[in-house]
Design a protein that fits this description.
seven-stranded mixed sheet, alpha/beta, 39% helix, binds zinc ion, binds nicotinamide-adenine-dinucleotide, 61 strands, eight-stranded parallel sheet
Length: 1662
Amino acid sequence: MRISILGTESIVVGYDYTKEITKEILETVKSSTYIIISDSNLNRLNHVKSFENQLTSDIANLNASSRVLTLIIPPTEIVKTRETKEQIENWLLDKKCTRDSCLIALGGGVIGDMIGFVASTFMRGIPIIQIPTTLLAMVDSSVGGKTAVDTPHGKNLIGSFHQPSRIFIDTKYLRTLPKREFSNGMAEVIKTACIWDEKEFEFLENNYEKILAFSDGSLVNDETSQILVKAILGSVKVKAHVVTVDEKESGLRGLLNFGHSIGHAFEAILTPQVLHGECVSIGMVKEAEIACHLGHLKEVNVGRLSRCLKSYDLPISIEDKMIKNVAPHKSCPVEKVLDIMRIDKKNQGNEKRIVLLSGIGKTFEQKASFVSDEVIRKILSPAVIVVPPEFPHRVNQLISLNVPGSKSISNRALLLAALGDGPCRLSGLLHSDDVQVMLSALQKLIGITFCWEDDGETLLIHGNGGNLRTCEGEIYLGNAGTASRFLTSVCSLIKVRGSEQCSDVILTGNARMKQRPIAPLVDALVANGAKISYLGNEGALPLQIKAETGLLGGTINLSASISSQYVSSILMSAPYAVNPVTLILTGNAVISQPYIDMTISMMKSFGIEVVRDSEKLNTYHIPKGVYRNPAEYLIEADASSATYPLAFAAVTGSTVKVMNIGFKSLQGDAEFAVKVLRVMGCRVEQTETTTTVQGPVNQNLKPIKSIDMETLTDAFLTASVIAPYASSDDSSTRIFGIENQRVKECDRIAAMVEQLSRFGVKCKENPDGLTVEAIDGKNYHPPTNGGVFCYDDHRVAMSFSIFVCGLRDKSKKTIILEKKCVDKTWPGWWNTLENVLGVNVIGVDLLPETNLKSVDYPVKFNKSIILIGMRGAGKTHAGKFLAKSLKRKFIDLDEYLENYLKCPIPFIISSKGWEYFRQQELAVLQKVLSEHQHDAIIATGGGIVETVEARELLKSSCGKTDQHNSKSELLDISDSKLLKFHVIHIKRSDMQQVFDYLSEDKSRPAFTNDLMKVWNTRKEWYEDCSSSEFIIVKEEHENWRQVERDLLEFVKFITGLSDNSEVVSFPGLNNLKDPSFFLSLTFKNFEKELKNLQIERFCDGLNLLELRIDLLESMDLDFIGKQLFILRRLLKRKIPVLFTIRTINQGGKYDDQTKESLLTYFKILSRSLKWGVEYLDVEILNYNLSENCHSIRTSMAETIISNKNNTKILASFHDCHGSFHWVAKSSISHKSDRFSLIEVENSFGFVFEKLRNSGADIIKLIGTASSINDNFDLKRFVDFIVPCMNHSNIPLIALNMGMRGQLSRCLNHFLTPVTHKDMPFAAAPGQLSISEINETKKLIGLLSPKRFSLIGYPISRSLSPLIHNTGFQVLGLPHHYELNESKDFNEVVEKIKIAFINDYYGGSSVTIPYKESVLNSGLLNETSEAVKLIGACNTIIPKKNEKGDSILYGENTDWKGITVNFEKILENSNVSANEKRIGIVIGAGGTARAAAYSLYKLNCTEIRIYNRTFEKAELISKEFNLKVNENNSSLRFHAIKNTAELFKNDGNHNDGKTRFLIVSTIPGSAQEETNFKNVFASLKSTAESESSSIAGGILIDMAYLPKQTEYLKFFKILSDKDSSDIEFEKCEGLEVLLTQAYEQFFHWTGFQAPEFAIRNTVLNNE
Ligand SMILES: NC(=O)c1ccc[n+]([C@@H]2O[C@H](COP(=O)([O-])OP(=O)(O)OC[C@H]3O[C@@H](n4cnc5c(N)ncnc54)[C@H](O)[C@@H]3O)[C@@H](O)[C@H]2O)c1
Ligand SMILES: [Zn+2]
């Protein structure tokens, strides 16, 4: 078969005709050399060889002398690059190919596009033959002459038009094509039909089974082969025609881009995991939705298109299961998608070009149309914002509308017509997921054919009289309840037939469907002869239904108290049973009688009359027979859906008329207007077929008090969202009779209560319904955290959109999540709400973090914490401490039990025995856990793990599922999505210590067993039952302070919160602009080697410490854990730890070559997650492993990463052998005549892709340099290749190892690994220290020297130059710090300006007397918030503002210095939770201002300022009261006149003691003269006389010359205290000076100041 394109019949279509192909090639293109280029997949499948053989033998037969060359390149998009093109060209030149060569592209679109491009430029263009082997290539890429290669900036950006001489389409190739690739091509086929030809589309709709059967080889015969060829021809003809009319794409050809504008944008993110056609499939649905929204296309067509795509296994949304499976860690934020569309060559500004359908087979324009961003955003967004309209809304206007058809009636009508005899036209059908699911199931089961008429308004079905059959594979029913119930009975009717291969049908659904009950129906059917078995959970889908005798008929008993759908299901199938059926409903109450009546009435319309027994009302008689299809059947509107626009009228004061539902309706919910809205005070008019409601314009909705909604259950959601708007004294509404709503799409009663409460509506659940109260003033507010969560339930979504419309305050915009769930019954709901009801609806996409869909909702950050562990490990102590610090409730389970049983535990045990005690303990645990899911710290008894039940309870509490998930079993890992409690195992590194202590304690029950034996049995249980493990390391003497500090940090980390609800932040990751470093600790045993080494020395300038586990002397888990916790103790948690096990293969010591050792590797990693490591190194790729181990590695790594919680994952890859390259290298072998491979797999780009897709937070790629050029390649990779691949901006560490790679260590910016001179050995070859790196950077011009200064007067004795210059020197920075001393401020400023303009200015410290005046000097362009509040600046920083201009920025680090030092002391003080703090500031200069600000930040309730000149103190206090106090009414600043009043403690503060935080800013030289020693003495005496109300005082002296000032000396006398527990602590000014200088240092240089070195130098200076 031939098709003409651009005037030549150059497209040939056929099946298995290689002979003719080669013959025609040799005839049409005479050539000296024929070059076949293909990929290794096709080569492996022998396609290349057989083609080559045919061609060679034909040439021989012709006695011609032409050569045949073959080149095989690796498959997939990744090779479609300029580099590959260049290599192919080099190879062609090497082979002496000339102008008369002919290229033959045998392969998919990748080969076709790239070889086409080669042909178009080689020797200014040579002929090319296309032999497409994928469906996509056949119908699309091979036709039309577009050729291209990709660049990192995007796909197909470089290319040309070059028409092939011939295109040979041979469908035989499709038989080896993977299924997914086939579907991928079908997307283009469907696309073409969709824009061009409705008949063609219909053909595709009806033949999907045969087409797919040909492709997967299950049914290859003449018929299927012809059908496939017809489908391909249909598509190719259109494309050929369009290309002929518009070759260079100026208009018409643009139509072929339907689905591509949006599809391409998704593809940019989702490639390569998701294929082009799959993205286009999603794009088509979205673009059709846009056409719908703009009013060009009817909603029904979107459903039709989606269904057709689905039947070819194509995804229709990015939420699709398949997409989530192949690209689990990728997301497509709407703004990102729009951004990508912005750079598409075809778009313009804020408008995008999109092909708008106007029907199936028709488009709105003969080209793509412009669509605004706003509309696209709306359609793409997963959530919507609903803006409440003005009240009253559209008065004097009648809003009328049609509501979609009833789902119940649609489904029934479809089923009846399919089972019936003859044609039937159904109109008004609902186009929803449910109906689609039903339609495609019926197609499979009955083989009905159907077609759409009137633009999809009418469906013509040809029923086949109940002639049912089995079918291959499963029938997937999604979450469609009706379909699954109805079809279960239908499938039971199938009788076995000899000819069929398959003897059963499997019905399955989504996760929720697999929980919904179906047992009563199945029981009834099985009792009547059906053979049904459950394949999953008992009583739910999936079901396997065996074809045997069919239903026997006779009497069927059915328990009908859960769902009327069971009843309808049996009723409708009953006529086809072997004998007439008598259906008897058993059970208490039969629910939803209206639905049963509806079924009976509809069956009557289809010719079967059910008789309800006149005496026994619950008995129905159904005759045998076949449904007779009426020629036409009109489906009425969905009465439940109609409640939304009607309720809208009620809450907005508008008038709404629903045109297709009235009192004659079969549906119970049709009574909503009369039974609910009229009672609430709306005007309701109802005719046979219409309903009109007018809401009160004065907002006076009346409460209904109490209503039985049993006959209109689905409308209860609508009723409960208008109930809060009722107004009267007693306006609570009780809705009952709706128990069945608990087992719908979700537990709807619970859902409504949960979501309404989030708006501040008072409501509660009852067993049979709920009670909703309207609150005074109707002061409802949108939920603050996230939006309305809809539980994937259409009714929840629609009712809340109505609730929001009732909010009176227009500014209260509410987000409704999961907007798509309305598709189930009203796909056009959001369009109707906007376009018909007139409400502003805006699309929003929440950031991935706030997109709450995947986590259990509502997110509770405050999950309770359970502490388990051996007796005496410290659980109670730890629990009390945590409760106090985190302000939570503490529950000691033992204590609770004693109170509960009113009996001490030893007594319980001695009188009733251990078993009884354990039972009671378990019961109490269950009770406590159910009552305290949040905000509690629960300490358990040591033996809690002794019973299986308690263990199971603890395990499931901490997210360890019992489903035999061998992976998580093996790894002992908590599923972070299932974690309900944090269960922390408190463990001692030295158990003996605990036992010694226990044996002394007589108050505890005696152990009969040897303690060590007990520990050995329980150890594993504790591990099993916990999600985290905290190890208390043995010290010579117990130091609980340190343990507490470590524990608190630990808990804050694992719960993801600090106590003030801020998420834990990570140094290094926060500010990617600043250089950052980490050091690898290469010790074998910290306890032995590190303790005396002062670990601080290693930390200078670092952001992270790497703990190299593989270098430790033992791999024992207990040993490793102890090392980690020792390290933390030493580090005081100042620097986070990176936990790394480096394998031999990647340059470490750990041998992971056996399966066991590999599993141990992952076991240790997962344990480190339990220890809450901040960063974890994971080797996701490792090439030298056997195939088997490789897959273990991949899946284990995946498990670890998806349960990482707050740990950041660093995915690392080390190529120690230099076999990977940063940029593509030519590697086609020039010698080989046959073929060779370009090894893409050996490129870092390839590795990067893999690691990026793993869900890691940081990527680390390490190569090995063999020459200096490798470093430049690396730089090219980082600067040009990565930015194009790295959509989510994952930070990257990229380095070359070895001496020749040292340069790369200077080029890397983020987390560069460094060594230290005191380390036993460097962790990697070529590693440098920070100073070496900086010195090199200076030499190669990457770091320019800057000058820093101190401005002030007099400053000659200042320590600042020493501090900063030491810092510069230690880190190897080429900077210098000097004094800029002058009494003349202008002179000072001039110097700064000159340095700034000449680009060597680094920054300045500011001191007396300029801290305040610098603010008004005009020198600074911007200042920080703190500076504005304080009114003083001590740091000047040159930097770039947002626009990129260089500016001078004013900062204040004084207050930080003060705050940090107070915090340090407070951390080690005995602070009680309700302690009160009073701040005292002595002095009133710039420093005093910073002090006042710091005290305010430290939560002082009162701040007293004293100064010799009272007016100055008063000025500050006034200013601060004004600025700071806006939001905080309890805080006051007071200026104090009389020193005697400074330490007054107004005794009425009886709930906690007072602590004074004192800051003196008086210079050391002036301290002799003041009377402050007396004042301090008075503090001491007050404290002693009022010791019950005063906790103590802390003095920070800002003066540091001399180091021990008079005040400090005197305060020391106070703190050398007697026996009293009053705490007096002090801090030298030098400490504050240092702390604030470290801050300055960081601000100026971006480097962490080397604190250890600076402190040592400064102290030795004296
Ligand atoms: N020029 C155009 O107008 C145009 C139009 C659409 C798409 N494209 C381009 O086409 C490319 C995609 O083409 P594709 O989908 O054919 O991908 P592809 O060429 O990568 O082929 C897909 C996979 O199937 C394998 N394969 C090919 N034929 C096979 C067979 N008969 N049996 C078994 N395996 C087989 C390939 O080795 C490859 O792994 C993209 O680069 C896209 O940009 C171009
Ligand atoms: Zn395409």
